[in-house]
Fold this sequence. Notes:
The chain is an all-alpha fold. It is about 50% helix and about 5% strand. Helix 1 (about 15-20) crosses helix 2. About 15% of the residues are buried.
Amino acid sequence: MAQEKTIDFTRSLTVGEVAQRSGVPVSTIHFYESKGLIASTRSTGNQRRFPSVVLRYIAVIKVAQRTGIPLDEIKEALGRYPAGSKLTAAQWRELSSRWRQSLEERIRTLTQLRDKLDGCIGCGCLSLEECPLRNPQDVLGRQGPGPRILEQS
Length: 153
């Protein structure tokens, strides 16, 4: 009968172990550390060692990035808690709720972009000839450069 391998969650992990268990390359771990998103200590041999809780932080960072949250916002949100601490379920809910408004705005913008993309992307540069009904005489172009229609609520 095969022996079950138990994982010691209290010991420090090498950067290679973190990469393997988190599914991100070592270079990404170094990048996250350089940006202050995660932290390591040094062994007596001057090798990086990470607490196992870093795996949870990396998971949150990956999910947040996938939803389009900038690293600065992720760092700010994680920075509200002691570095490397095991956050409670309530703290994780608080963390995610801080991103809710930003995500809802992003969803609204993406939905609007999807719905308007077939006709016009909303910029003034093509509106004079292409969108005479939505933007006669390039009225939106006078408001400034860029996707004026898309930026309207």
